[in-house]
Each structure stands twice: as C-alpha cells, then as structure tokens.
Amino acid sequence: MKITLQEQLINLLTNYIQTLPANAKLPSERELAEKYELSRTTVRAALMELEVTGMIRRVHGKGTFVNRVDLNSDLNSSYSFNKQMISLGKKPQTKILSFERKEANAYFAKNLETEVGSQIIKIKRLRFADGIPVMLERTYLPADHFNLMTESMLSNRSLYSVFSEEFNEQVYYADEYFLAGITSANDSKYLDIKEGAPCLNLRRQTYDPHNQIIEFTLSVARSDQFAYHIRHDISNKS
Questions:
Q1: Domain spanning 81-222 has what CATH number?
Q2: Are 216 and 108 in contact (CB under 8 A)?
Q3: Where do the HTH gntR-type domain residues begin and end (predicted)?
Q4: What is the pTM of this model?
C-alpha cells in the first residue's frame, strides 16, 4: 500500500519533534509547506493528526508547540470506564464513531512495538455518563492479534471483553500517562465544549501476559466532568 504525502510528512515531523525540547515552537504551516513542498492543506492535516497523538499542541494566535509527558502516576488498578462510571452512580454509554484499518506510521509503530507499515486497527469512540459526552477515545490495536475483529463485536461489549471472549487475549497490566491540556477545535465538537477548554489527555499502553503491547489508546477527557482518584501507598517508608 502506497503511503500518502500526509503520512510521509507525519513520519518526518515525528522524527523532528523527538529531537526538540518540551515547549519548543514548530515552524508555521506556511514554512512547513514551503520546506517540504506540500500544500498547506496537507500540512494542516498532518499537524491535526500529531495534535491528536498529544505530541504537539496548537495555540490559536501563538503557534504550534512540542508537548512532553513527564509525569507517570500509578493508579494501582485496572481501569474500566464502565465500572468507574457505575461506581459513581452514573449510567455509562459508548458510541462507536469509526472503525478502520490503516498502516502504522512511525509514531504508532513505536507505541505498539510493531513495524512501520504494518496493519493496525483504529477505533474511535465517544464515552458518555448520564447522556453527557465526557471522553473521546482513539484506540489502536495490532491487526496481527485481532485480525478478525469487527465493529459489531463492540456494539454491546467492552473492548477487553472482546479481547478475552473472541481472541483469548488477557490483559495483564497497563501503563497510563496523564497530561493537562486544552481541547482542540475538532475534539471540542464531540465533547460539546468550547475550543480551548481545559481537558485531560491520557495515553495508555496495555500488555498481555507475554509482555506484548496489545492496545494503545489516546483519550481526551473533559476536566469539568471527569476526575481520577490516585492512592499512593507510603506505608513502606525508607
């Protein structure tokens, strides 16, 4: 499958961004278009994709800047959106916005520990609590683990239930990172909040018992509707 100009640019910018310090300002859309001899439409689409991954943030009137996730909080428990909402006395609901297969670019290949160009599954879901949209999730799965997965399998089951019931894949542990941010124009439409409103960006990698990554999820949560409770065990002081 031929890689598009947009994907080529995403790969180039991903490598470039990884050489920059946190909060470094990127060249403008016009400058990038001139440098790589591409249309501004292609550059804009590539930057939007990078913004979704959390690698960059775009500030209206100021420019585009490099993000860095420097803090890692251990939740000490397996996360389940449905279980968390039920424990809070709220009714959870999930709407599948898209289900597609695509080739992994450098960023997703790295975070799924697979090869660039390998097939991955992308699932975009909107999460609700009592009818209010609270979280937008973009999940990426290695297709070689879940090649027969279909959108209908997720219609009334959780992703992890599908893992175990359809593919005999067990979730062993997950690493999750948190970063405060502001909502992009695209994401704000789904979450029914104003562009630039505060949000919580989450990045999650889930592993099976063989220490292989079987899920990579990028989420944007409304800060006015969503919160995490973290308990730190400090009983064993050194």
A1: 3.40.1410.10
A2: yes
A3: 3-69
A4: 0.71
